[in-house]
Amino acid sequence: MKYFFTQTALLAVLLLTQACSSVVRSQQGSEQRHSSPHVHHSEHEVNHDSENSTITQAKLTAPEKILPHQPVALEINIQDPQGKSVTQFEQFQEKLMHVIIVSDDLKIFNHLHPKYKGNGRFEVTFNFPEPNNYTIFSEYKPTGAQEEQVSVMNVRIPGSTPVPSELPKYSNVKILTDTKVNLYFSQPTLFAGKQVNLKFALQDITNKNASNQPVKDLQLYLGEKGHLVIIKSSSPLTASDYIHAHAIQDSPEGQVNFITKFPQPGTYKLWMQFNRQGKVQTADFWVNVE
Ligand SMILES: [Cu+2]
């Protein structure tokens, strides 16, 4: 029995070593492989930020072959247009960088906070759950920049497993384990370019005696009552498809309210994250914008 454990431990160490070496290998070769999408992206940023003096790009270093269901180290390097690392960042919403990883059909959503390693390099570990095409949105604020920057990176997890794309299912109610989340809009139809209030009313469904009462144990998540990411369904996904809405400070108990604007007509997916007793939960909704 003791022998078995020693073997297992040794195997684990070997696997770890292999994983590390494959990351290092791909770092050397990554420059070229990822150069074309990033050149494209920086052109996009030039147009987008013409009034803003800060133009940055994100370069992704990832293992050449990524398998689903395995933790993989991703490195995001923030650079200026000349390829020089941007090294100073300001926190916003309590972090130096917020990363949103979605599958391109918007079925899979993750919100992560990479560790800053210095010299423009951020690191995060992620477990891609299935073969699919993924888009990584990284949001960060270089010191001195007027606003947060959004950079887009792509990762493809090859695999033959047929993965049905998610089709929009429109519903204003989401039932989670202990919370029912109801979404209300300030107007019956959403129009592109028009400011809208989004109200998420959270009801407690754990307590059978006081069922559907407003949730009273909301805690702050990233310094706010809730966090909302909105992405427009597009192919390919670009930085302009990503909307980070801002929570309204004084909303009634059990409610998380946001004010935002949908830039274009289309189909959008919303992920509202909130914190109940230290457990972050995500309620997702599809909405249609005229
Ligand atoms: Cu974040």
In DSSP terms (H or I, runs of 4 or more residues), the helix count works out at 2
Q: What is the residue-mean pLDDT, rounded to a whole number?
A: 82
Poorly predicted regions are 1-53
What class do helices, strands and sheet pairing give? alpha+beta
- Backbone CA Rg: 21 Å
- Tell me which ligands are bound: copper (II) ion
CATH architecture verdict of the largest domain: Sandwich
Q: Could you tell me how far the N terminus lies from the C terminus, measured between alpha carbons in angstroms?
A: 65 Å
What is the H level of CATH, i.e. the homologous superfamily of the largest domain? Macroglobulin (MG2) domain
Shape: globular
- What proportion strand? 35-45%
DSSP, total strands: 19
CATH topology of the largest domain: Immunoglobulin-like
Structural domain count: 2
* Largest sheet features: 10 strands, antiparallel
Question: Percent range for helical residues?
Answer: 10-25%
